[in-house]
Amino acid sequence: MSSYKDLDIYKISLSLFYEVHPMSLKLPKYELYELGSQLRRSSDSIVTNIVEGYGRSAYKAEFVRFLTFSWASSLETINHLEKIKHLYGNLFRDDLIQNYEILSAKIYSFIKYVENNWK
């Protein structure tokens, strides 16, 4: 792997961010800067922490630290999506939560891989 762009978790998280961001702008106006903003920030944080962690990958502990931030942001994003689904019904596609759950599992697996196999 020669770049963070080669990581599946990067590709998936960026793709999901591009889906969630415009959908979050469809929330009621009073939620745009509340729950909508939190969703946009947590979704963006996933991909951003993968990139920043990769930039520090020469230091295994730093890489794991930022991957852990990414994993936590993925869980936060799932929580925001679940709240939106409960409050506003099917404003978002039903598979978004499932896709973020899959991403979370992939990030967690990658954390374990880095902890056990990174130089």
TrEMBL record:
InterPro entries: 23S_rRNA-intervening_sequence, 23S_rRNA_IVS_sf
Bilayer-crossing regions: none
Entry-linked Gene3D superfamilies: 23S rRNA-intervening sequence
Lineage top rank: taxon: Bacteria
Protein's name in the database: Four helix bundle protein
Organism, scientific name: Paenimyroides ummariense
